[in-house]
Amino acid sequence: MNNSRWNVLPPAPADYFAENPHLSPLIAQIFYNRGLTEPTQLASFIAADKRLSADPFLIPDMHQAVTRTYRALLCGENIAIYGDFDTDGITATILLVQGISRLGGNVVPYLPHRLNEGHGVKTPVLEKLRQQGISLVITVDCGITALAEVKKAQRKGLDIIITDHHTPPDTIPPAVAVVNPKLPGSRYPFLELAGVGVAFKFLQALLQSIGKEEGLDDLLDLVALGTIADVMPLVGENRYLVKQGLRLLNDKPRTGIRGMANQANLTIGSLDAESISWVIAPRLNTTGRLGHAMPSYQLLITESADEARQLSLWLEQKNAERQRMTSEVISKARDQILAEGVAPVLIASDEEFPAGVIGLAAGRLREEFYRPAVVIKPGKQTSIGSCRSIPEFNITQALQQCQSFLSQFGGHPQAAGFTLPTKDLPRLKEALIRIATTTLAGIDLRPHLDIDAEVTLAELAGETFHSLQKLAPFGKGNPVPTFISRKLEVTNLRVIGNKGAHLNLKLRQGGSTWDGIAFHAGNYSKRITPLLDIVYNLEVDSWCGAERLRLNILDFAPVE
């Protein structure tokens, strides 16, 4: 297969192993690869405790945000939490609604409708909230680009506090407070909080200021859900927040989480970052993709087992519908791309594309072709697009270069969205192709695999897997440890799965024999030679109630 560039990370210096004699050489090497070179870093990473948590008042405007919210509580003002329709936005909204309600606040949620309103803060919504008696709006996971909207709201007497984690534009909205660790001049030591993470720090600051921090940790399950779903790096403070949140999800799950687990055949007590990423988060996102996000909000706050069961079943059905729609968009977009020729940036558009799944389709195209991908739904007057990119291409910077003909855009270096007048679509396509052609010139456009260590199969025996689990939770920034083993003898080969999608291998090296599986590699069965070099993770295979370790093969190359 060898579809990736293999990058075996350099070995740790000898003195690093000498300084950590309590660690096996393999585990020490993995810690070194994660940048944990100081003893204090190592200890706090393993413990994943509050030493990783920073003072919330180091985030810009936190004092102003707390002061204004406290005044609203004292005066009995009506407060709205203005969120977003993805899992990060939903969990952040619940966190502040529940947290402020515990303080006696009059607080209501507002989640926008993806299809009717789109991302971000909208003036008609703010005006509607003002007419309903709301005097303070606190945004979560949005608002940092709402310059005009905040100006209009302030002129009409509606105060806005922005809490957001997206990259700030050059001009910041003139809100009462803008709470974002990425603002220029920020002294906050960790810049990769999710939207729900920033909301949590705001609530932490509010509770600290009035001496009522008890119960704060009960909301960490929401922080874990939103942080994992938004694919934030699971290092630094996120490691602490997610590890504690996962513990809560397993020990004291919300009624809705228990209902979702039952429908999706997950086991409470064994929920991890992977089950959130691949099972729970996609289902929570489904309602916002196909309609309104409030059913997911309701599922996470309900205390009724019957309601949780009904909502979970409905979500399961909606998720199946979402999967079908996504497959159709991917197929049509792929045909367009192949017909036009694979360019440095992939661009596909169709009026029939459902807006809620174009981001998912862009992500799949990026994975298949290893190019930045843009999928667009054109409208008569206005078009919307969703982008997914590769590490070598910052899609948000590319959109900034096109902002003269974009109505709105925002996001992260590898995931973004935009709107623009439909008449300007040809200009956008031309500009993005020009930028990508220049930026990606001379780059080997294949995904690269960072490999923690070269090992023999014999080195994986004993307690190695259990030792590796001390590094969990795994995710962006702290990937599952990846190994390379060379000259393995293939003693058995089977093509398995629907339409022969996967490869099942039995591999031997010396006296060690392991089962291995290469997902989505069925087409490569004829490239298997008697000896292989393989790159892989270790994983637990659960089958018919039994569990055993196997090699999850990420890539392989024949040995001549």
Descriptive labels:
about 550 residues; OB fold (Dihydrolipoamide Acetyltransferase, E2P); 18 helices; 5-stranded mixed sheet; inorganic pyrophosphatase (n-terminal core); alpha/beta; 5-stranded parallel sheet; Diaminopimelate Epimerase, Chain A, domain 1; globular; 3 domains; about 20% strand
Report what the structure shows:
The structure is a single chain. The chain has 18 helices and 18 strands. A five-stranded parallel beta sheet has the order 3-2-4-5-6, sandwiched between helices. Strands 7-8-9-11-10 form a five-stranded mixed beta sheet. The mean pLDDT is 93. Helix 4 (62-75) crosses helix 8 (195-209) and helix 8 packs antiparallel against helix 9 (220-229). The radius of gyration is 25 Å and the shape is globular. It has three domains: 5-10 and 449-558, OB fold (Dihydrolipoamide Acetyltransferase, E2P), CATH 2.40.50; 56-252, inorganic pyrophosphatase (n-terminal core) (Alpha-Beta Complex); 342-439, Diaminopimelate Epimerase, Chain A, domain 1. The chain is of the alpha/beta class and 560 residues long.
Summarize the structure.
The protein is of the alpha/beta class. It contains 18 helices and 18 strands. A hairpin with a 2-residue loop joins strand 17 (531-543) and strand 18.
Low-confidence stretches: none
Overall structural class, as computed from helix and strand content, comes to alpha/beta
- Estimate nothing, just give the exact number of structural domains: 3
Distance between the amino and carboxyl termini:
14 Å
The quaternary organization reads as single chain
Percentage of residues assigned to helices: 25-40%
- Could you name the CATH topology of the largest domain? inorganic pyrophosphatase (n-terminal core)
Rg: 25 Å
On the 0 to 100 scale, the average pLDDT is: 93
Strand fraction: 15-25%
CATH architecture field of the largest domain: Alpha-Beta Complex
